[in-house]
Amino acid sequence: QWSQSYPVDATRGYSERCLNELAKVIPGLIGGSADLASSNKVYLKGHGDFCLPGCPWGRNIRYGVREHAMAGISNGISLHGSGLIPFAATFLVFSDYMKNAMRLAALSGAQVIYILTHDSIGLGEDGPTHQPVEQLAALRAIPRLLVLRPADGRETSGAYKVALSHRHGPSVIALSRQKVEANVSGTSTAGVEKGGYIVSDNSPDDGVPDLILIGTGSELSICEKSAEVLRTSGWKVRVVSLVCWQIFEDQPMEYKDSVLPPPVTRRISVEAGSPLGWHEYVGREGVVLGVRDFGASGAYLDTFKKFGFTEENLTQIAETLLRCR
Question: Where is the Transketolase-like pyrimidine-binding domain (predicted)?
Answer without folding.
Answer: 9-182
